[in-house]
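ARCHIVE RECORD
Type: protein–small molecule complex
Small molecule: manganese (II) ion
Source of inputs: curated submission
Record status: active
Notes field left blank by submitter.
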Amino acid sequence: MAPEPRPLRLAHTSDVHLGAHAASPRGRREPGNRRLEAGFRAVVDLARERAADVLLIAGDFFDHARVGAELAAFAAAQFNRFPGVTVLLPGNHDPIGAHGPHERHDLERMAPRLRLIRDPEGEFIDLPALDLAVWGRAITVNVTERPLAAPPPRRRERAWNVAIAHGYAVAEEAQRERSLRITPDHLAESAQWDYVALGHWDVHADVSAGGALAVYSGSPAALGDAGYGVAVIVDLDANGARWRAEPLAPEFAP
Ligand SMILES: [Mn+2]
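STRUCTURE (tokenized, with ligand):
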């Protein structure tokens, strides 16, 4: 009999949009920016309190490429506050390659447990100590990626295989003008993953379909609203995958 897989706990967030209120001369002191930072701090607090093994950030962590050294240092300090591995997927606001923030800031050097997904064709982040492989496609400035289409097979040597993606789940094949499309067919192809961590929608939503467990975490602090959102906690064990949304309630309220 095969040994039982190592139980794992994931924390999942996306669309943090750090620095979104870029026009303010107050910079990071602008209340809107402080609220976004407080939202992400609360995600890290939750991941620590729940003793998550991995923190998944499914794109649009930064709002734009003009991230200054101070905000990059804030981000690295938060990654370093989380004792587990953080997997960061570039989204359309913080794309990989030309015109993206990762050209300016080497976050992995500043935060040794951070793993950045870099390949727009898709790559696995292999975490043998956790018996986990995380697969995702980095988004480029062209936003022509199909985040979940035609995935590679699972890594058979890892008990747990999870996908991370930044895109728009469309209900029908007809919406061809959408960039970063995730179609029902793509979700059906994603049934092989134990969990699909989605980003691009600011609102938390369960879009599981076709056998895939696929969830948008939503933003910690949505851009349009007052208040805070949720982070998703995922448990993987011998009984399979279960997830729950946990509300974020940071101290800071502008
Ligand atoms: Mn996006």
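CURATOR ANNOTATION: The chain has four helices and 14 strands.
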